Amino acid sequence: MAASLSVKALWSASALRAPLTGASAISSHRLFHSSRAQFTDSKESTDATTPAAAAEAEAEAVAPVEQKLPFRRRNFNKWLRTEGARFATPSFSGPNYIGETPFPMNPLFKPTPPISNAAKEEIYKLHRADSTKHTPRQLGTTYNISIKRVEAILRMKHLEKEMIADGFVAQENFTKGMEQLMGVKAVRSEAITEPLVDILPQVGSPKFEAVDEDKTFTAEDAAKVLKRRPLAEIKSRMLEEERQKPFKLVDSIKGIPQVEAAPTKAVSRNSAEANPRFKFAFQDTSKNNKGTFIREKDGTLHQVQKA
């Protein structure tokens, strides 16, 4: 009868001597399967484990946990498995909006792609090469952007060069990645244009003027009725102001008056404490070595001397 059994259990001698409980009982018992059918079934079940079956098993295991989550969280997880699954591998050929616009509740807002960093660098180099020839107005006309945007690009690029010279490390890879995600093109489309100057006068309540059909009514006549200067006169005045006060780049770091530094004394130098971007000043409040210390970018430690 013992030969007909498909499974034989062999218990260790320690289990027979004294009863065990908990993890000790589980570890001390040894179960051996001598059935061929049992071995074949376990092998077939192992071979049947495919990615689809694993995903189904994972979904079944997650289902009880999902039931315990709040309603909003369950909907969010469902969205991640369906529509939101494409955001796990975003496209680098353009923006990755949930809909067609960045704000689904405002479909009328359709922003244009930003100007590439290469175009900004080119604008800055042209202006630095010849500021009288490549003025903000001329650069705005060439690149189809407003004068204010050109001036902002020139100031930001000038500040960037100063910071790099002062030890700041520019995140160029981050800029390239963001340009790919925003769909920035190396050559800006000619269809994207901005007015050079936005002239927005203060508009009050509407005014009406009765005019005969055969009478000419020009922009100058409209300006007289509205008691304002004609638009052509406003533009010419702005051009004259640009000639009298041309755009100039100002060194934002060098232009600030420097405060006379207090005398210091070199204490030590540790290359491991070097930082190419910043220097640190800290106050030591210990009893034996009170005072103010400055850690330079090269790792040198200076102690500020009392006046």
TrEMBL record:
<dbReference type="Pfam" id="PF12298">
    <property type="entry name" value="Bot1p"/>
</dbReference>
<protein>
    <recommendedName>
        <fullName>Eukaryotic mitochondrial regulator protein-domain-containing protein</fullName>
    </recommendedName>
</protein>
<dbReference type="InterPro" id="IPR021036">
    <property type="entry name" value="Ribosomal_mS45"/>
</dbReference>
<dbReference type="GO" id="GO:0003735">
    <property type="term" value="F:structural constituent of ribosome"/>
</dbReference>
<dbReference type="GO" id="GO:0005763">
    <property type="term" value="C:mitochondrial small ribosomal subunit"/>
</dbReference>
<dbReference type="GO" id="GO:0032543">
    <property type="term" value="P:mitochondrial translation"/>
</dbReference>
